[in-house]
Specification:
single chain; about 150 residues; alpha+beta; Heat Shock Protein 90; five-stranded antiparallel beta sheet; 5 helices; HATPase_dom; serine/threonine-protein kinase; EC 2.7.11.1; kinase; ATP-binding
Length: about 150
């Protein structure tokens, strides 16, 4: 099965929930386990929150774009902003690093995304934005486990 979608929304914090739920609905044909759904929702939430808070400083005007492709049991997804960009991607991906300590940000977003995905990459350019790409493969559910 192959499917593809694009979702764009204004960079306000309320739209993080929209993105998380829309993407969760998009993967339902893959019949993910509850654990896989939880991990996937967390990846989406972290990536979108970073775009809204760090990319656009919650400006409420700029657009965040998600593009996702399902192929067999794998989803490939990008979350893109055209905002501030990341000065040092390697440093930003270190656990506990945050540029927004006054907002009580933990600095664990990239670490969490990396641990829940099969592959994560980040491209960024100051003043031009950031693209977070990740892949996650979902386990095929056997007919025996469906009957339980």
């Amino acid at each position: 099965m192959k499917n593809e979608m694009t979702l764009s929304f204004v960079a306000i914090e309320e739209n993080e929930a929209l993105a998380r739920m829309a993407m969760t609905c998009f993967i339902t044909p893959l019949d993910p386990t509850l654990e896989e759904i939880s991990e996937f929702k967390t990846i989406v939430s972290e990536a979108v929150t970073n775009a809204i808070i760090h990319g656009y400083d919650c400006d409420g005007v700029s657009m965040v774009k998600i593009h996702a492709v399902i192929d067999d049991h794998k989803i490939s997804m990008t979350v893109q902003d055209e905002g501030n960009g990341i000065f040092d991607v390697e440093q930003a991906m270190e656990p506990m690093f945050t540029t927004k300590p006054l907002m009580e940000r933990s600095g664990m977003g990239f670490t969490i995304m990396e641990s829940f995905s099969d592959h994560l990459s980040v491209e960024s350019s100051i003043g031009n934005g950031t693209i977070v790409r990740f892949e996650k493969t979902f386990s095929p559910v056997s007919e025996v486990s469906r009957m339980r």
